[in-house]
Amino acid sequence: MFDSACDPIALYSLAHFIIIIIQKRSFISLREEVTRTVKSMSEPDYDRILVKKDNLARCAWCGTPESDEWITTERNEIFCSSECQAAMYSVGAVGSTGAGFACSCLGGIMLLALVFSASLNPGMSSMRNVAADLLVIGILFLLTGGLIMFGGNEGKNYQDRKDKYRNVSLLVCEYCTQTNPPSVTRCTYCGASLTRAMFSYETTPPWIQKRRVNRFRCPRCKAVYSYDPSSLQRDGTVKCQNCDMPFVPSRPLTPTDESNTAYSPCSGV
Fold first, then answer.
1. In this predicted structure, what is the pLDDT of residue 4?
2. How many CB atoms are closer than 10 A to CB 40?
3. For the chain, which residues score pLDDT lower than 70?
4. Of 98, 164, 225, 247, which is most buried, counting CB atoms within 10 Å of its CB?
5. Is 64 among the domain residues?
6. How high is the pLDDT of residue 229?
């Protein structure tokens, strides 16, 4: 019996059997880990407020994190409206208006010189090409100066928006109704996540049009969230965004309730 136990073939078979068991257990653990990962990735985990960790999407001029249509520039700046964008680009509006006025004056001088030369030498055909060039350049200078001055004057009307909504407490926790500063991700009172919090109505910029959404209370966890018609399942239910329990909405999913639910450019809503 001892000789058979020490047989190399038997030892190899035993070792091979142990390796198979270890590999099988490792494969099962790996499969469970992959299943958990895929499940977590498939679950809706987007943020309506947060653009990236601990940061809100904010207008570069007024500082509000709420907008129905964000404007992104090539310099990676975002604006809540075209008015704030004009205000941002008209900083030092006096200088920009002065530059526009100088361009307009230069264009006017070119056109006057052209008219003066034509009146002195009406029959000189050799000056026709130069006159045509002066005419085109003068008109371009006039148009450029006018546009610069128009942009500067338009932005002046919105200079008072500067940082007006950058540091206000505007995130209202949906569970305890505590108002929180805009830099936190969890309620400072109850610790609930603020990724789907609402903006305080009093601090919403008046130039942002309020979106109309549907808000429903989950019968299980009592959480209140907004749902659009695309959230409706085939069986006529929607999934709670807090506990994932399906429930039947108490009314049709049509935009009838006015709300100021949080909104972000990178949230997908």
1. 46
2. 9
3. 1-57, 68, 90-157, 167-170, 182-183, 195-215, 224-228, 253-269
4. 225
5. no
6. 73
The answer to whether the beta carbons of residues 66 and 199 sit under 8 Å apart is yes
Provide the number of structural domains found in the chain: 3
Q: Is the CB of residue 145 less than 8 Å from the CB of residue 100?
A: yes
Domain of 113, in residue numbers: 90-161
Of 149, 168, 30, nearest in space to 95 by CA = 149
Strand stretches in the chain, DSSP E: 50-52, 55-56, 71-72, 78-79, 171-172, 179-180, 198-199, 212-217, 224-227, 238-239, 246-247, 257-258
Rounded to 10°, the helix 128-156/82-89 angle is 110
Q: What is the pLDDT of residues 141-156, one digit of tens each?
A: 666 666 665 555 556 6
> How many CB atoms lie under 10 A from the CB of residue 244?
12
**What letter does residue 261 receive in the DSSP assignment?**
B
Give a yes or no: residue 82 inside a domain.
no
Dihedral sign (CA 103, 109, 110, 115): positive
User: Strands (DSSP E) along 65-208, which ranges?
Assistant: 71-72, 78-79, 171-172, 179-180, 198-199
Predicted model pTM: 0.37
- Cα–Cα distance measured from residue 113 to residue 136, given in angstroms and rounded to the nearest whole number: 13
Which candidate, 38, 39, 51, places its Cα nearest to that of 269?
A: 51
